[in-house]
Specification:
The protein is of the alpha+beta class. The chain has 8 helices and 12 strands.
Length: 317
């Protein structure tokens, strides 16, 4: 059975195919065969015929939404279009885009983040050696943070060496999740007290990306594709000089302040951070494997966004 990761890559390939077929109506199109392209192609080729049909419908609806917002894509006298699926390293560099559409010989580009039946933001890790502060907002974690988390991860290393499974760990919430999340929250709050706006802005920018993009979420049971434009820098929704966008995409604003950071009520595994400008995220810490590992993953979800980040729903044909 294909994994969710395989399905996600197959959906990326469906977008690439459908974009090429649609944009060729207007201008020359070239697909760049990167490592990301090859991985997506393998996932597509191993997908069932039924899944390929679902992914194609999902992609067609998502592309229609993007075209309604981006008349430059359908400009018949524009330069050649290049399509590519970047390597995973882009995600580590705060670029969440799965598909990139570039206009050759110019700096103009559009990115799409593709999701299959989920809207998770990112899955960053915590470990005894990963400096999340430096990675997330450019501020290295304090000595106090490392002193708090090191005993927990040393204990996890011992359990890993014993080849224990997570269901064999006694009181894992109290001994693992709670102390790690307390240290995480404390570091967020202390860093914010010192660096303020820089930390708040950089943190959200790391989680959603440093480039404007469209997030396209396939809701397969509902047979719709939900598209959210993240136009934080005003680079999306440009007129081609002859045709205006069918849909106007407002410009949203990154946060300046952290208003609240604490555990979600009645949860030992999830914390929430509320920023100004309408940003609200939850961070659920979880084990990514049945076996004990010396690192844990965050599942980051939006619970609130600025009112001017619109959501478009396009039904499948």
């Amino acid at each position: 059975m294909p994994s969710s990761n395989d399905n996600g890559r197959a959906l990326e390939f469906a977008y690439l195919i459908e974009l090429a077929q649609k944009l060729i109506e207007y201008r020359d199109v070239k697909i760049e065969e990167t490592g990301g392209y090859n991985a997506a192609k393998r996932a597509w080729e191993s997908a069932t015929d039924d899944n390929k049909t679902v992914f194609s419908f999902s992609a067609q609806a998502g592309i229609k939404a993007v075209l309604d917002c981006e008349p430059l894509l359908a400009d018949p006298i524009g330069n050649k279009i290049q399509l590519k699926i970047p390597t995973d390293v882009r995600g580590q560099e705060a670029d969440v885009r799965d598909i990139i559409i570039l206009c050759s010989n110019t700096e103009w580009e559009i990115g799409i983040s593709v999701k299959n039946n989920h809207s998770a933001v990112k899955h960053p890790r915590l470990s005894g050696i990963l400096d999340f502060g430096d990675k997330w907002f450019g501020i290295p974690c304090s000595e106090q943070y490392w002193e708090k988390i090191n005993p927990v991860f040393e204990d996890l290393k011992d359990k890993k060496n014993q080849k224990l499974k997570w269901n064999e760990v006694i009181q894992k919430e109290e001994t693992v999740y709670v102390p790690l999340l307390e240290a995480f929250l404390s570091e967020i709050q202390n860093s914010y007290q010192i660096y303020g706006q820089k930390q708040a802005k950089n943190m959200v920018e790391y989680l959603i990306g440093k480039k404007d993009f469209y997030k396209a979420i396939g809701r397969n049971r509902k047979r719709i594709t939900e598209v959210q434009p993240y136009n934080l820098r005003g680079t999306l929704n440009k007129s081609d000089g002859r045709a205006e966008p069918k849909i106007v995409v407002p410009t949203a604003t990154l946060p300046n302040r952290i208003i609240h950071a604490d555990f979600v009520p009645e949860s030992n595994t999830t914390v929430e951070i509320i920023f100004d400008e309408g940003w609200h995220m939850t961070f659920r810490l979880h084990n990514a494997s049945s076996k004990v590992e010396a690192s844990l993953k965050f599942d980051v979800q939006f619970k609130g966004m600025p009112a001017n980040i619109i959501s478009l729903e396009y039904r499948w044909d």
